[in-house]
Amino acid sequence: MTTAGRKLRHIDACLHHAVEFAGVSTGFESVELPYNALTQTNLSAVDLSTHFLGTGLRAPVLIGAMTGGAELARTINRNLAGAAQELGVGMMLGSQRIMLGDDETASKAAVSFEVRDLAPDILLIGNIGLAQVSDTLTPMLAAALDRVGANAVAVHINPLQEAMQEAGDTDSTGSYDRLARLPANLDCPVIVKEVGHGIGAVAARRLRGMSIAAVDIAGAGGTSWARVEQLVRYGEVRFPAVADWGIPTARALVETSRELPDMPLIASGGIRSGMDAAKALAMGADAVALARPLLAPAIESQDAVVEFLGGFIEELRVCLYGSGVADLEGLRAIGVNG
Q1: Which fold has domain 3-334?
Q2: What average pLDDT does this structure show over 192-210?
Q3: What is the pTM of this model?
Q4: Domain-wise residue ranges, the chain
Q5: Alpha helices in the chain (DSSP H)
């Protein structure tokens, strides 16, 4: 199966099948955001703005990585980017692996990732798999990032997904050393992210001292990519226990912030509401990211993405108001219970 064909199968699975964790939740249901019945804030004046990786955001929200390399992916990415520009939030592209091929293939694939004409001001984060990180490929990666105008790159670490994928990249030997060398060889910030099975204490500890700019914990409780890959490969979930394996998002956030106390953190993995976002931010995340809930709207139109994401951001604003705080600094100061 070609890379573009697999991307289309991923989209189909996420749209039409049960791909979320069945027996694992994010853990945010056990976390309580303190409610203040005597709030003295003004809802319309609640300030959600922040800076992340040197770029201003009107809300601490990123559109998570989804897709690329096919015509439908171009539609999705351009609708997402237009919405990000309109709302003042960031966006992470899907894996740009397909852009590392021969010149003709890379040029054709690049079109699906090119969104800067619609979103000149947003924080745009490129994306590559750890399996594709190598000294040999770094110049091609740099060219791919430059071509799309990315401000940073996310390196996704996804051993479980690769193990479930047909002909996946399952030789992780030496990958840590290659990752450690990458920031010195790229002229942009490097983010390390999971894809939805979580970065916890063990992995976070290994990132200490590495010259990375941020970590996206991408915990369990949202889309299970071990489930998606089984559906694409077998047409069914043959290994349900593996599909439900991972570190719940709330726990991943706690463990990673404990191991990397000064590291900027993105909370993703089952972030489905403004309340989820508020809890994650109160727990120490610098930004939150969501992806699958935006997939169907992104196929429809930019306006559909704006409607969904705008509602998400408004719910986050209400959560700050109801907590009695006026900005993100105040939210982090009150923290959470549980």
Answers
A1: TIM Barrel (3.20.20)
A2: 98
A3: 0.97
A4: 3-334
A5: 3-16, 71-87, 103-110, 138-148, 159-164, 175-185, 201-206, 225-234, 240-243, 249-259, 274-282, 295-300, 302-323, 328-334
